[in-house]
Design a protein that fits this description.
Helix content: 25-40%
Oligomer: single chain
Strand order of the largest sheet: 1-2
Largest sheet: 2 strands, antiparallel
CATH class: Mainly Beta
Mean pLDDT: 86
Number of strands: 4
Bound molecules: zinc ion
Structural class: alpha+beta
Number of helices: 1
Order of helices and strands: EEEEH
Number of domains: 1
Shape: elongated
Radius of gyration: 17 Å
CATH architecture: Roll
């Protein structure tokens, strides 16, 4: 038997923050340095952004020590 490919199954991605699976067409995406990150919505994007900013601050504090 030949296995048929599901042609109409929407491609899904996992939200970078809450890891919920969302159709790629509904995902918000942000191009990072070398890859694209996906979010289910602006709430998760905001969370990620705040986290990133905090990490950057922490790194700078470590360097100045
Ligand atoms: Zn999310």
């Amino acid at each position: 038997m030949i296995e048929q490919k599901k042609l109409f199954e929407p491609e899904k991605v996992a939200c970078e923050v809450c890891l919920k699976e969302i159709p790629i067409s509904e995902a918000k995406n942000v191009k990072a340095t070398d890859y694209i990150m996906y979010y289910c919505g602006l709430d998760c994007y905001d969370k990620w952004k705040k986290q990133e900013e905090q990490e950057e601050q922490e790194e700078q504090e470590e360097k100045s020590d």
